Amino acid sequence: MSISIAHVVGARPNLVKAAPVVAALGDLDQSVLHTGQHYDERLSKVFFDELGLPEPDVNLGVGSGGHAEQTAAVMVGLEREFVRRAPDLVVVYGDVNSTIAAALVAAKLRVPVAHVEAGLRSFDMTMPEEVNRRLTDQLSDLCLVTSPEAIGHLAAEGIPVDRAHLVGNPMIDTLLANLGKFDTGKVRAAHGLPERYVLATMHRPANVDAPETAAALVRHLHSVADLADVVIPVHPRGRANLIAAGLDDHPRVHVLEPLGYIDFIAAVRGAAAVVTDSGGLQEETTMLRVPCLTVRPNTERPITITHGTNRLVTFEELVPAAGKALSAPERHHLSLVGGRPPTPPGTDRMPPLWDGHAGERIAGVIRDWTGAA
Predict the structure, then answer these.
(1) Which of the listed residues 88, 92, 202, 343 has the most CB atoms within 10 Å of its CB?
(2) Spatial contact of 38 and 11, defined as CB atoms under 8 Å apart
(3) Any catalytic annotation for residue 7?
(4) Which of 251, 253, 245, 226 has its CA nearest to residue 319?
(5) pLDDT digits (tens, 9 = 90+) for 54-97
(6) Is 195 within the bounds of a domain?
(7) At 47, phi and psi to the nearest 5?
(8) How many helices (H) does the chain have, and how many strands (E)?
(9) Which phi-psi region, left, alpha or beta, contains residue 199 (left: φ > 0; alpha: ψ -120 to 50)?
(10) CA-closest candidate to residue 136, choices 169, 81, 95, 168
């Protein structure tokens, strides 16, 4: 049976999750539709090149804008593409505006939807991502779950149990597949970085959109820099507010342009600690055994706290938490043993199915559901 699958991606995390799924479905008729939500080449094109993803069949080039403007532009472009291509299944990833836009368009055209990373919940409806993932799950025919607690969240929201499939985390597939390429020394040399540093990434609206909040964040990052150099690749979102607040005024703060996937994870791997408000980075640091301080009141990835290295902190808690992380005994880098990651010290096991084979399991569910050969 001939099956046509359309993968919709729009932002860096989507690409990292999509790569192993596209590879595992390699013999089927697939198209990759890039919405252009992340339009900076360092947050988009370089990821296609590094992750072995095929060039997108279309790039809608929607760029930035308010939530309504951006989501509407994606919907208009995707409706045209879905009508023209008539896919049998649309696969969406994560929780960005492109994800909910694709799910809405597909549902109205009566095209089935598969949601990779379904069921994650922060229970904070002030987060745009929480709105996106809740609604996407309601519209999805296949809920492909990366974390066990997500099954319960979907059931509590009335989603039939036969729609949900625990498949593991494709983001971890990508990390493990590229583990030998993460050369921290090369990144340090390329950017003139010290041997010991804290890596920071901040882009959530709650942290960077309001000038006064961005200024408070910068003050605390400067205090962290009093303890150790801070390396911060600055996301386009919030850049103006962070720079205006004097982010690069401290002599031990190294402001970088966005990095490609390989260089960025290499920098993460070599960090003494990570300060972030990202979702996916909480998972990557758990796998790499890097202490992670997440500057948010909640997380949709609690498994990174119970099984990993992640800790939620407020602005006021950031500096003492960073001091504690920096004073901890030196950790061992993640390496492969017999082709598999070893169990991290101090934990009984890694999160379930973080084994590098999530893409294959997702492909298996899709093949079974669609009847593809």
Answers:
(1) 92
(2) yes
(3) no
(4) 226
(5) 999 999 988 778 889 999 999 999 999 999 999 999 999 999 99
(6) yes
(7) -70, -40
(8) 16, 13
(9) beta
(10) 95
Task: For the chain, report the end-to-end CA distance as a whole number of angstroms.
Answer: 6
Tell me how far CA of residue 47 lies from CA of 13, 43, 53, 85, 102, in angstroms. 10, 7, 8, 25, 21
| 116 C-beta neighbours (distance < 10 Å), count | 28
Helix axes 261-269, 12-24, angle to 10 degrees: 110
The runs of H, that is alpha helices, within 86-127 are 97-108
Tokens representing residue 216 in the block? 């408070």
Q: Report if residue 54 sits inside a domain.
A: yes
The CATH number given to whatever domain includes residue 301 is: 3.40.50.2000
Q: What is the pLDDT of residues 324-368, one digit of tens each?
A: 999 988 765 565 544 445 544 444 468 999 999 999 999 999 999
* φ/ψ (deg, to 5) at 210: -85, 130
- Answer positive or negative: Cα dihedral of 246, 248, 251, 252: positive
User: 99: Cβ–Cβ under 8 A, 6 or more apart, which residues?
Assistant: 8, 10, 14, 92, 93, 115, 132, 133, 136
**Range(s) of the domain holding residue 304:** 180-327
Three-state DSSP state, 142 = strand
Please check whether residue 332 lies inside any domain of the structure.
no
On whether both 14 and 153 belong to a single domain, the answer is yes
Same domain membership, residue 301 and residue 157: no
SS3 for 191-255 is HCCCCCEEEEECCCHHHHCCHHHHHHHHHHHHHHHCCCEEEEECCCCCHHHHHHCCHHHCCCEEE
Contact call for residues 164 and 156 (beta carbons, < 8 A)? no
What is the model's pTM?
0.93
Number of folded domains that form the chain: 2
Count other C-beta atoms under 10 Å from residue 205's C-beta: 16
CA 194 centroid distance within chain: 26
Contact between 365 and 179 under an 8 Å Cβ cutoff? The reply is no
List the beta strands (DSSP E) in 261-317. Answer: 273-276, 292-294, 310-312
Catalytic residue, candidates 38, 115, 191, 203: 203
Dist. CA 22–CA 81, nearest whole Å: 19
In 3D space, the residue among 246, 221, 216 whose CA is nearest the CA of residue 232 turns out to be 221
